[in-house]
Amino acid sequence: MTSTATASFVLDKWEPQATDEAGGTEFARVAIAKTFTGAVEGTSTVEMLTASNATSRAYVAFERLAVSVDGHKGGFVLHHTADDSGLTLKILTGSGFGELTGISGTANIELDAEQNHTLVLSYDL
Fold it and tell me: Which InterPro entries match (predicted)?
């Protein structure tokens, strides 16, 4: 049965580093850290690669979470892909550990009018 866990999060670190630019498109690497509160409680680190130009941008990222999800302590990896058509977040198969071993599912990030971030995790355990 699929469960849903919702949590607010803040960005503790956002460190972009330009790595390459050619033909008007820049590649960059961004190191990110987050803290989650709510049904998902804990922290994460993110390694993101971006590509952007005057008309488009996209990113891929892997996010390692060390969290408690609805009281189950452990962690897992989220695989991010995003471009101008939208964002996809999937739990990387086999990445769950601790009490989250075997977790699978997807997630969404919502942003409200005050720019507060919310993670909505739909998962099976």
Answer: DUF3224, SO1590-like_sf
On the 0-12 / 13-18 / 19+ scale of CB atoms within 10 A, 86 is exposed
Structural contact between residues 70 and 56, judged by C-beta atoms closer than 8 angstroms: no
Could you write out the DSSP letters of every residue in 81-97? Answer: EEETTEEEEEEPTT--E
Buried b / exposed e across 6-22, counting CB within 10 Å, b at 16+? ebebeeeeeeeeeeeee
- pLDDT for 18 equals 72
Residue type, 100: L
Query: CA Rg, the chain, in Å?
Result: 15
pTM of the model: 0.91
Give the torsion sign (CA, 103, 4, 42, 59). positive
Domains of the chain: 3-124 (2.40.350.10)
For the record, the structure tokens of 112 come out as 């409200």
